[in-house]
Amino acid sequence: MSENIELEMKIKEVLHTVYDPEIPVNIYDLGLVYQVEAKNDGNVLIVMTLTAPGCPVAGDIMQEVTQKVQALEGVTDADVRLTFDPPWNKDMMTEEAKLELGFL
């Protein structure tokens, strides 16, 4: 269980500003963020995935997430981890993302 719900809400807000350049939907609504955990000491863990393992902009997306989260007040360190377990699929998207991309 998280120690810092308020900081996690700020992190989720900033994650809504990170986009895969090939998809006009933010990574949070795409369902690419699997875990956001903020401790009271400001250490943050983010576990996320990509739409495909061979994503050519993977490094750029991970760097943008790290930079934006570390810039938040109250964050002392951001550990952004990439996983492909479970593999991403379009069912992980929010209804808004599915509508935007024409899946509904």
Low-confidence stretches: none
Examine the secondary-structure arrangement and name the CATH architecture: 2-Layer Sandwich
What is Rg?
13 Å
| CATH C-level | Alpha Beta
How many helices in DSSP terms?
A: 3
Helix-and-strand structural type: alpha+beta
General form: globular
Percent strand = 15-25%
Distance between the termini: 34 Å
- Overall number of strands: 3
- The neighbouring-strand order within the major sheet is 1-2-3
Q: What can be said about the biggest beta sheet? A: 3 strands, mixed
CATH homologous superfamily?
Fe-S cluster assembly (FSCA)
H/E element sequence: HEEHEH
Walk me through what this model shows.
The protein has 3 helices and 3 strands; from the N terminus they run H-E-E-H-E-H. It is α+β, with helices and mostly antiparallel strands. The protein has a single domain (5-91), classed as GMP Synthetase, Chain A, domain 3. The termini are far apart. InterPro entries: Fe-S_Maturation_MIP18, FSCA_dom_sf, MIP18-like. Residues 10-80 form the MIP18 family-like domain.
